[in-house]
Write a structure and sequence with these properties.
The chain is mainly alpha-helical. About 60% of the residues lie in helices and about 5% in strands. It has one domain (about 1-185).
């Protein structure tokens, strides 16, 4: 589960960095790989003609894949900082949304199935906005107010790495630790240096 979530975050980032044309080409290639018998023995031009002829079917498949892509993007958004503001009509102000870091990777509730279901959007929005109500993130708080979850980040990361090491070995634990270090500067909830 942990390694799968890390892969989802990395995939969401990689996919997000592609242009629309690159995304479309990637999805066409994925469709061909998932339907090997339909394209067996065909050259590149013949594959393209077949894809164009079956465009309605391919587009329906892409729509299904799009739901999984949305779930991956939601997981990544929960894990990382979103670098833009969202205008909240209820409060008539701009609100920064923050994310949870390693807690998302460790918690089994945040998974693709949860983020895919029909309530996924509402659940996602609640989870994204909830921490903005905490001390240190409100508009009225001084900029140096400590975030209340900052003290938890090092212990959650340590627990996550220890669990992965116990279940999957040192190589997997090292991979998870390097992943967390790689994204540490992008997380809005900082690590409290006194406990790191």
């Amino acid at each position: 589960m942990v390694l799968s979530k890390i892969d989802m975050v990395r995939f969401a980032e990689d996919f997000d960095n592609l242009s629309q044309t690159q995304k479309s080409n990637f999805l066409d290639q994925a469709y061909i790989q998932q339907h090997p018998l339909d394209f067996q023995g065909l050259g590149e031009r013949a594959r393209k003609l077949m894809l164009d002829a079956d465009r309605a079917v391919v587009n329906a498949w892409k729509k299904q894949v799009g739901r999984v892509t949305t779930a991956r993007n939601r997981l990544r958004a929960l894990f990382l900082q979103v670098n833009n503001c969202v205008y909240v009509a209820i409060t008539f102000r701009l609100t920064w949304f923050i994310q949870y870091g390693a807690m998302v990777i460790l918690d089994p509730v945040w998974n693709t199935k949860t983020l895919l279901n029909h309530q996924g959007h509402e659940l996602h929005m609640v989870l994204m906005s909830l921490p903005s109500k905490l001390v240190g993130l409100r508009n009225t708080d001084p900029p140096d107010s400590p975030h209340p979850l900052a003290i938890l980040q090092p212990s959650v990361e340590h627990a996550l790495v220890c669990i992965v090491e116990a279940l999957a070995g040192i190589a997997a634990a090292t991979y998870v630790n390097e992943f967390l270090d790689e994204y540490a500067l992008q997380m809005r909830i900082p690590r409290d240096p006194r406990y790191d």
